[in-house]
Design a protein that fits this description.
The chain is of the alpha+beta class and 151 residues long. The protein has one domain. Helix content is 41%, strand content 11%. The protein has a 4-stranded antiparallel sheet, with no helix packed on it. It starts with 10 loop residues before the first strand and ends in an 11-residue tail after the last helix.
Amino acid sequence: MGARGRSAPARPCGGGLYVERAGRTRVANGASHPQPAEARAADKAPESGPGAWFVKTGCSACHSIAALGVKSAAQVGPDLSIAVEDVQSRFGRTVEEFLAEPTGTMSLVLAGQITLTPEQRTIAVQHLHDAFREYQRLKAEGRAPALNGGQ
């Protein structure tokens, strides 16, 4: 919660936006639900380092990026550590093509909840490739993280 009792800014979450206020989550439909301390902590970390971009843009509201140490509180979308190959296998398109013209849930998210300029989408692709390289490195070392959410 911000200064003088103001709530945190709205952030994307599944079917709508949510606002944190005193440990509770208010979803766009107006319902208010308690939010466990673990979920609040997971959604905020890491605020620096290679996974910070995914947290700052709101991707981590639904997606974990296990290779970069980012765990989504909701874990409703697939782990973005392997998005480079996952998008290809699911949609028959590269991640670059998918972000340029997303389909399904991501078309709605990128149209209204997380709006990215073409330049920001290029940066997103770079971060997704970085996460995939880190996942591959960890896997080659026998330390691949468990992938959660939407798999």
